[in-house]
Every structure is written in structure tokens, then in C-alpha cells.
Design a protein that fits this description.
By secondary structure, the protein is an alpha+beta fold. It folds into 4 domains: 71 residues, Winged helix-like DNA-binding domain superfamily/Winged helix DNA-binding domain (Arc Repressor Mutant, subunit A), CATH 1.10.10.10; 49 residues, no CATH class; 87 residues, SH3 type barrels (Roll); 88 residues, Alpha-Beta Plaits (2-Layer Sandwich), CATH 3.30.70. 37% of the residues lie in helices and 25% in strands. The chain is built from 11 helices and 12 strands. It is elongated, with a radius of gyration of 27 Å.
Length: 335
Amino acid sequence: MATNQQSLLRQWNMLRLVPRAPHSISAGELYERLRALEFPVTKRTVERDLNELSQVFPLAVDYDSKPYGWSWLRDASSFDLPGLSLPEALTLTLVEQHLRHHLPPSTVEALQPHFASAQRALSTVDGSTQSKAWLNKVRSVAPQQPLKPPRMSEDCQRVVYRALMEDRQLRLHYLKRDAQEATLYAAVHPLAIVQRGGLIYLVCMFGAYEDVRTIALHRVQQAEALYEPARAKPGFDLDDYIRSGQFGVIAGAPVRLHAVFSRAAGEHLYETPLDDDQELTAGPDGRLHLRATVPNTRALVWWLLGFGDGVVIEEPAALRAELAGIAQRMAAAYA
């Protein structure tokens, strides 16, 4: 029974993938698309299914083309699965808006018809409908000044994501900041993708080296997926890597931070602590004394600078001296 159900689901998806004439799709292309949808199938099975389905549905094959192209007849009745419910359409729309860069390109391509169906479903209902109105009631706001994302090659992104998904090595031409010519990385072993704001980073290893690096995906000028398998990093944990402060630009080992905040500047730390071991106590003057162990990153410096005179660093001494120097230079610049 399970086999019959799988066959029916596969054939149903095949029918949805076949375009209406004059457009067409070959059995080989259908085979690749079905594989991307994770159907275990052979090209011969696809060809047999097409021939069988053409006996029941208004499908046509162009024997004059090589490879043969399959399509729905131009005047054939519309064929589709039952329409999306409004909650389903809402969910797919939010997925497209917020998770596009977290999905493999093959998955995004496979979901495009569903995204289009979701847009059609929402466009046909009144704006007061709860599901459609929800889209105008929720937003994601960046905690810092929003910046427009850099331009990125979709072709390079597709190649990199696919290599990551299939655990294959990459050959990359990478344009470093302020460089005039791209650097060739002949063997890159992809480990993960991380999105930080509008930037997407590839976490990887180069050649035979064991240290983990990050490169900005928008600086990749050319990408080629190689047939050689990528090396894994024993014990690598992406969450631990992020928690170590790598995406805040590491400046050294973690530090024990002691900072004194005005109540207005630091009160939010009661609800959103910096770390599990954070200590936040109010002094006699109402100011808040913060003690926490935090990654020593440039992001920490930028975060503290954002409070202006609402915070004073007590420890570590090096961080206090750095912020004091920045404040003095700013005062001189504005004098």
C-alpha cells in the first residue's frame, strides 16, 4: 500500500511540474526536479509514468525535439491540487519573506508554485480577512540601523547552497574588501550558512587547513561545485561557533565586563540579559552595575558606544581605555 501511495504522490507532483504548451519539459528535467523534491525515482520510471499518464490526461509530447518535450495541451482544463486555505497561504507568504535564505535553492524553486498560489489565495480575499490583515500587523525590526543588503549573485548562491547540501567541495573566486582582483580558493569545504542582518556568510575550511573561516557570500564572484566530497570538521557545532562571538568579529578571549549604566540605558538588561551569569544590581544613586562574561568582539564595542554617556566601563581596563580614547577623539572631532 505504501508503494502505491508513493507512486500516486510522485505522479501527482509530475503532473503539476509539466507546463502548458507552448512550454515543455523533458523527462530528464522532470527526473531532476523530482529528485530535488526527494522522490526516489529513475529516469526510466519517469518516462514510463509520462506515457501512462498521457493515456488519461491531455498531455502531449514533441517528438521533433531532442530530448522529447512534454506539456499540457494548450486548451486543456486547469489541473491543480485543492486550493490553499488562508492560514496555509499566510504561512507560505511569511516563509517566503523571512526564510528564503535559510532554504536550499532547490527547495525554494520547488516552493515557487506554492508561493504563487499563496499570493493568489490572499489576493482574492478582502483586506479585512484575519489572515490577510495579519500581514499588516507584524514586522521584524533590526535592533540596529537597518542597511540595504549587498547585491549577491543568485547563481553563485545556488551553487554554494547546493554544494553545502550535498557535502561537496567548492572552487571559489573571492573578491576581498578593497581588492582589485579576485582571489582563487581552489578547494573550499563548506560547513554552514549563517545570515546576520542582510549579510550571508559561508562557514568553511580552506584546502587542507583545519581552522574554520567565514566568508561573505556577496563577495563570491564565481562558484563551482566540485565532485570531490567536502571534509567534515570533527566536533564542529554551529551554535557553539556562533556563541563564541565569531560573527561579532573576535578581538580576543571572553572578558568579564563590569559596566555602570544609567537606569534608562540599562533597565532593559533585567529582561534581556547579556549572559546566564549576568549580575545586575542597583546602586544608591540609582545607576545599574552590570557584571557579565561576554565574548570580546567589535560588536561589544559598537553596542556599548551606542549608549553614549549612558554607560561607563569599569573593567576590563583595556576596554575602558579603548572607549575613553574613542570618546576623546569624538569630542575633538565635534569641537
